[in-house]
Amino acid sequence: PSTVYLKDYLPPEFLIDQVMLWFDLDETETRVRSRLELRRNPAAQSRSPDLRLHGEQLELISLSLDGQPVAPAGYLQDDEGLTVRQVPDQFVLESEVRILPQQNTALEGLYKSGGLFCTQCEAEGFRKITWYLDRPDVMSRFTTTICADKQRYPVLLSNGNPSDTVELEDGRHRITWTDPFPKPAYLFALVAGDLRAIEDSHTTPSGREVTLRIYVEPENIDKCDHAMASLKRAMAWDEQQYGREYDLDIYMIVAVNDFNMGAMENKGLNIFNSKFVLASPATATDRDFQGIESVIAHEYFHNWTGNRITCRDWFQLSLKEGLTVFRDQEFSADMGSRGVKRIEDVRLLRAHQFAEDAGPMAHPVRPDSYMEINNFYTVTVYEKGAEVVRMQANLLGPEAFRGGTDLYFERFDGQAVTTDDFVQCMADAGQRDLGQFKRWYSQAGTPELTIQGVYDAAQQTYTLTVEQHCPATPGQPDKEPFLIPLAVGLLDDRGTDLALRLAGDSDPGPTTRMLEISEPRQQFVFEQVPVAPVPSLLRGFSAPVKVRFDYSNEQLMFLMAHDSDGFSRWDAAQTLAQRILLQLVDDPDSLVPEGFVQAFRQALQDSASDPALLAEVLTLPAESYLGDQMAEVDVEGIHRAREQLKTLLASELKTELLAVYRDNEVTGEYRPDADAIGRRSLRNLALGYLMQLEDQAIQALCIAQYRAGNNMTDVITALSLLADRDIPETAELLEGFYQQWRDDPLVLDKWFSLQAMSKRPDTLERVKGLLDHPAFSIANPNKVRSLIGAFCSGNPVRFHAADGAGYRFLSDRVLELDQLNPQVAARMVRLMTRWQRYDPARQRLMQTQLERILHTSGVSRDVYEIVSKSLE
Ligand code: B3K
Ligand code: ZN
């Protein structure tokens, strides 16, 4: 496979002003006719006599130019497209192709999900529908006519506004959709099927009445209310926070069961993985409710950050994704608990993005090359990209940041632009040079800040010395210094924030200061500091960096108890827990500081604090994250240490945990609001600790919680805890759960996952058995993620078993899946690519499997890129 480089970008030679599409949908074949109005791009930097269009897996039926059939000598078709020879400067190209959506298991282009036809065109799926300039900087007006059997496909949808339906003689019907907004082909969408919809409406500030519709399969019609409410909240929030309103008369969402990722922001017609639409208290967990709210919002926010202003090329992907993730994070923070949301986002970033940045697939937020663009929809482009936007907000402050986004919308509406264009708006609005800041887009790797603090009692000064360093990443051995906003506070001996006065300040400043780190080494002198302070560093996680500061255990406990910044309290607890756990890995007999247990006790007894925040503080770092902190991952040692500490805390704090369990019961009707979610999470966390005790009375409590069946959050937590242990009732409960939910695929996903993540030693055998379960299908991405993905990523001690059985299992599945769905196969194979982090025996086992995949004939470009880069 060949590599595409950012430095090779050239503007398109042709533009498409208008495109008309006609779809004849059918079970045996689908015909697509297209009419493209093309002309040469005045801004092109190159000129060839021929027109080159993208197109894959298309069977050509006819081709004509300005109404005249193109002779066979006038065009050339190959695997990747069509070259039309010697074209004029302006012309109409018409073509007809045959495609087979029913055989499309890659779920890219036009495909069938159950009885529905649907599309997924980002990034380069439109070329599997018809010949086109399938690149985001070619924006065109689309008119789409769909024709299909009326009984099987009563609902026919595409982007924009609909015409009236026309009934045809042969039991078919036809409709035309017109989208007035020019858009790149990746935002095209089509859906046909037997769907029901719930409808609502929203009036924008300028008075536009927008019809809102969520389409689902008939049996799911009662599970759409939360998605609709979320959409309405998102629309109101974007109007309020960014001054952005919706621009068509109708906004449609369709839920489908077979989908490669979460959802897709197609103009006016979002297509969603049903996981991010359907919810009822009985079937969805608190996490599911939150996930739906945030993904619905994310796709809605794309209408401005992605659709109205899109990407010039796919290297600019973070232009829309980083910004839109930042927007959805802020929305969720406003809808729920801001502090908890920040902790969750940072935990995800540290667990996955820091790991990516330290591994063989490390790449900048704006990558400079790729083989397969679908491999770059990563935590780096999305979540680190969001942090890079957040840092700009931190550097500019809220007003200038809003000025920057206003400017961005005004300057670039209707255009396909770059991350540089975005930063320039921020620089203009903030009236400052952000040249150095742009390294966050071009340099990969997680910067490390090594910080020292010295108190001078005589001078009453406190000096922070900050050094930055960024480790090498593939292709980038040396890094230039970053511009890093570092939020700091200083606590006095009673835990109170000091007003911060930097050398040269005339007045004492606020209690949190945003220091700007731009040099390899810098000093900051705080004056009039009356006592030796404890520094609180990187408050709110003001930048995606690692901080090294030599805190004592006592200082960490002090911060954990007193820091005014919720994130930093949590972070201190994590740092301390991590330190203790890593000591236990080295030496199981090492002593757990009494103060740590005491700090947990105090937290459990602290009824004044937000239960959701407490639950975060009391959650120990994950096994995989602990592994990332070691020079060589000790798979068994980490598992043992973490279990050991959990059991110790459970036995020392049994009374307090039982009290928390008892006091945080949520009664009354289920509601996924921040308060109820927080109480459930604290209560279920307590149950998790208590279940470490192998105590029959507690197991009975857990079974009772399962049987009470008040809501899916409590039910699934209880069942997962039971599935971890050899309790006689478990088999029966698991079977009962299956029987109860056998017709609900989303609930069964949870059932597969909890079994895949079970701590039991025989889990791999059970997972293999579940591959043959009638409810499992390797063709369905949700099932693959819930069974195979959950095992390989959520169960490190079983996946990394010393005999290599887990690795063989994964590579067998990857090879099988690659034949059907390369995108999902490439996601799965990533789970084995950080082999260099393990001991020599495991390294060899993983390498062997990776080599085996690489040398299998016909392996997809998607899988090839990941595997070959990991072996470099
Ligand atoms: N833009 C889509 C992701 C498309 C992934 C293509 N492989 C969803 C989103 O980020 O909103
Ligand atoms: Zn997105």
From TrEMBL:
<dbReference type="InterPro" id="IPR035414">
    <property type="entry name" value="Peptidase_M1_pepN_Ig-like"/>
</dbReference>
<dbReference type="Pfam" id="PF11940">
    <property type="entry name" value="DUF3458"/>
</dbReference>
<dbReference type="InterPro" id="IPR045357">
    <property type="entry name" value="Aminopeptidase_N-like_N"/>
</dbReference>
<dbReference type="InterPro" id="IPR037144">
    <property type="entry name" value="Peptidase_M1_pepN_C_sf"/>
</dbReference>
<dbReference type="Pfam" id="PF17900">
    <property type="entry name" value="Peptidase_M1_N"/>
</dbReference>
<dbReference type="GO" id="GO:0016285">
    <property type="term" value="F:alanyl aminopeptidase activity"/>
</dbReference>
<feature type="domain" description="Peptidase M1 alanyl aminopeptidase C-terminal">
    <location>
        <begin position="554"/>
        <end position="872"/>
    </location>
</feature>
<keyword id="KW-0031">Aminopeptidase</keyword>
<dbReference type="InterPro" id="IPR024601">
    <property type="entry name" value="Peptidase_M1_pepN_C"/>
</dbReference>
<dbReference type="Pfam" id="PF01433">
    <property type="entry name" value="Peptidase_M1"/>
</dbReference>
<dbReference type="InterPro" id="IPR027268">
    <property type="entry name" value="Peptidase_M4/M1_CTD_sf"/>
</dbReference>
<keyword id="KW-0479">Metal-binding</keyword>
<dbReference type="Pfam" id="PF17432">
    <property type="entry name" value="DUF3458_C"/>
</dbReference>
<dbReference type="GO" id="GO:0006508">
    <property type="term" value="P:proteolysis"/>
</dbReference>
<comment type="similarity">
    <text>Belongs to the peptidase M1 family.</text>
</comment>
<keyword id="KW-0645">Protease</keyword>
<dbReference type="InterPro" id="IPR038438">
    <property type="entry name" value="PepN_Ig-like_sf"/>
</dbReference>
<keyword id="KW-0862">Zinc</keyword>
<feature type="domain" description="Aminopeptidase N-like N-terminal">
    <location>
        <begin position="104"/>
        <end position="187"/>
    </location>
</feature>
<dbReference type="InterPro" id="IPR014782">
    <property type="entry name" value="Peptidase_M1_dom"/>
</dbReference>
<feature type="domain" description="Peptidase M1 membrane alanine aminopeptidase">
    <location>
        <begin position="227"/>
        <end position="440"/>
    </location>
</feature>
<dbReference type="GO" id="GO:0008237">
    <property type="term" value="F:metallopeptidase activity"/>
</dbReference>
<feature type="domain" description="Peptidase M1 alanyl aminopeptidase Ig-like fold">
    <location>
        <begin position="445"/>
        <end position="549"/>
    </location>
</feature>
<dbReference type="InterPro" id="IPR001930">
    <property type="entry name" value="Peptidase_M1"/>
</dbReference>
<keyword id="KW-0378">Hydrolase</keyword>
<dbReference type="GO" id="GO:0008270">
    <property type="term" value="F:zinc ion binding"/>
</dbReference>
<dbReference type="InterPro" id="IPR042097">
    <property type="entry name" value="Aminopeptidase_N-like_N_sf"/>
</dbReference>
<protein>
    <recommendedName>
        <fullName>Aminopeptidase N</fullName>
        <ecNumber>3.4.11.2</ecNumber>
    </recommendedName>
</protein>
<comment type="function">
    <text>Aminopeptidase N is involved in the degradation of intracellular peptides generated by protein breakdown during normal growth as well as in response to nutrient starvation.</text>
</comment>
<keyword id="KW-0482">Metalloprotease</keyword>
<dbReference type="InterPro" id="IPR012779">
    <property type="entry name" value="Peptidase_M1_pepN"/>
</dbReference>
